[in-house]
Write a structure and sequence with these properties.
heterodimer, A: mainly alpha, 57% helix, B: mainly alpha, 82% helix, 0% strand
């Protein structure tokens, strides 16, 4: 049961962490600059930046946080929350990209 | 090297697609073993696919992450964004779908370790199935528009 709760927390934390990272600058906006092969927190004018890796790092941080928070809580987990959260998050993220299709 | 990684990425995605599709069929339409292709397909043991699916999903995604950097500069910035922005939109959805599916992997693993939670196990497996197919098809569409 304890182990189940940890996996539950990891998935939920990762979903929330990634979605927040796409829609906002929270918890932290991490950018990769391929031309200089470096990482940073703010855009550099004239330098293309990749945000996706940073979003995955945010998802990883969310997963760790979810595991740590859920570890001591002795409540039964509801697995339906996970797939519902994933479905809602994906729907929001797809809607977030709608501007690419109206050009 | 890019071409080699791209081919391995594609092969790995194909194996993932086969594994998750078999598993989903067995989960949604289980059947006792009997003669014939369709019954045999439905009669596979879905539990036995879990480790392979987790490995193939992570492996395919790691390879995709390696290819993502040249894709962003050589394909997306140089062509897609200006000429076919809808393709960029489809790829953005592919990125998000892959990330959300990766986030589901711990839950997927845990759900397949227990006999309970049948409905959620089915739902998570189905989401991974849809994401695997979406990403496979969109990857091919993008590669046909402008490959690495």
């Amino acid at each position: 049961m304890n182990r189940e709760r940890i996996w539950w927390g990891a998935s939920l934390g990762a979903i929330v962490g990634y979605t927040l990272a796409v829609l906002t600058s929270y918890p932290i906006r991490i950018l990769y600059f391929p031309h200089s092969d470096s990482w940073g927190l703010i855009d550099v004018p004239g330098q293309p930046a990749i945000a996706w890796f940073g979003r995955l790092i945010n998802a990883g941080m969310g997963a760790v946080l979810g595991m740590l928070v859920l570890w001591p809580i002795r409540l039964p987990v509801r697995w339906s929350v996970i797939w519902m959260a994933a479905t809602v998050a994906l729907s929001i993220l797809i809607y977030h990209e709608r501007h690419w299709f109206g050009r | 090297m890019k071409l080699f990684l791209l081919i391995v990425h594609g092969l790995s995605a194909t194996m993932l697609l086969g594994a998750i599709t078999h598993q989903a069929i067995a989960v949604w339409m289980p059947s006792p073993p009997s003669a014939g292709f369709w019954h045999s397909l439905r009669a596979v043991h879905p539990q036995r696919y879990v480790q392979a699916i987790v490995f193939l999903f992570v492996f395919t995604m790691v390879l995709g992450a390696f290819l993502y950097v040249p894709f962003r500069s050589d394909v997306r910035a140089a062509y897609l964004d200006a000429s076919v922005p809808w393709a960029t939109g489809l790829f953005e959805v592919k990125e998000h779908a892959a990330a959300i599916a990766l986030a589901l992997i711990p839950a997927y693993w845990a759900l397949w370790q227990s006999a309970a939670h049948r409905g959620s196990r089915r739902a998570v497996t189905t989401i991974l199935l849809v994401v695997a197919w979406w990403n496979f098809v969109i990857g091919h569409v993008i590669n046909n528009l402008r490959g690495l």
